[in-house]
Amino acid sequence: AEPVGDRLGRALVTAFGPQRREPENPYNDHRPYASPRCLFPVHAFVDGGAGMPWRLLEPDRHALTGTREAPAGNIVLTGRYTSVPPAYQWFRGSLIAIELGFVLRALSLGLELFDVPARLRLPGPDAHALLPALGLDDAWAWSLPFVVELDGGGAPPGGTAPAPGPPAHLARTDPALDALIRVNREQTYDPAPAPLTTAVPAGLSPSATAPDWAELLWRRHSGRMPRALHGMSGRRADVPAEALDSAARWLSVPPPGTELAAAFAMLTATAVVQGVVGRTDGVHRLRDGAAHLLRADPTAPERLEEQYGYGVSPVNGCGIRHAPLTVFLSVRTRELCARLGTAGWGAVQHAAGWAAHGLCLSAAASGLFARPVRAFKEIPTQRVLGLAPDEMIVLSVVVGVPQDTGGALLDLRL
């Protein structure tokens, strides 16, 4: 019964607002979605309406910059490449693209929960003109914007400034950043708006561990470690079949937009399963909302951990050999680019982020943790999974049984 502006504000806080602080955690406050190193490089801008400037969402304050009026119009999602440390080099492009997929699903869920109808407008050939209109001094350092249009908001107001390009010295001082920005500007899509339908699969069973959405978003985490240590902790325990079935159903919901949905359909979800009641330990294929056994292999989790880049050490935890479910999202890149052209590279990473966020929410509903990772050695992991040599692993999600680290969890929702 609230006005749409108030409901939009609640949806934005649901999608972006910090959930908790863990004093022992070396990373930043946890939000409802995962982010590499908790950097949160993707930001939301809201159209001020009636010729007013765009306003930046400040999640910590549960507020927008500028005046105190309720938000209006459209939402822009864009990622700042310079928020990611230069040591990541070209991978900065992939991290932004993947997080845009996470954020898109998180925002879609918030809008759905508060009944705010909206459409997604993917970046078209002239999308770069919108970046200077957001009031960014370094507009060249941001990804092409995704625009979420509210019903009645109309098309987003464009900018009149020239298209921002990387500064001339960037090719010399940071050639990787210069290259990934130029690649991003070539990844344009059909700009026709596509309706946001649902981010949630149908037929989910009631959850005993997260009885409502607020509790589910609070419980989402990536495997807590004690005493400011890094990595993930987990323990070996059997889990009900519903945990695997739920994950498969969350992976069956496509993202909005023709190209994103096409890239999502080309993703292959392969899971290493152990200790799931009633299911065979080994390699499974998750498709059409169900898990299908490919090969019995009780040694697969241990062999996976051997190929992970951050093994157990005095300062790092690793729970892969104990995880009941480790999911790999892969794609045949030649087929992807043949079908979608230059848009395929970004589209499949957006789609993988969308899928992985679904796995994170599925895990939270089952009382498990889910940690998106991209640190497996590619070729040995292909062999463990039985993937073809031309299949690239886009993203992985380790789903594990959490350990009680005894650390404090401070509620930041109020």
Describe the protein's architecture and organization.
31% of the residues lie in helices and 19% in strands. It is α+β, with helices and mostly antiparallel strands and 414 residues long. The chain folds into two domains: 4-195, NADH Oxidase; 213-400, NADH Oxidase. A seven-stranded antiparallel sheet has the order 4-3-2-5-7-6-8. The chain has a six-stranded antiparallel sheet with strand order 12-11-10-14-16-15, sandwiched between helices. The longest helix has 23 residues, at 91-113. The radius of gyration is 21 Å and the shape is globular. The two termini are 22 Å apart.
Short description:
By secondary structure, this protein is an alpha+beta fold. The chain is 31% helix and 19% strand.
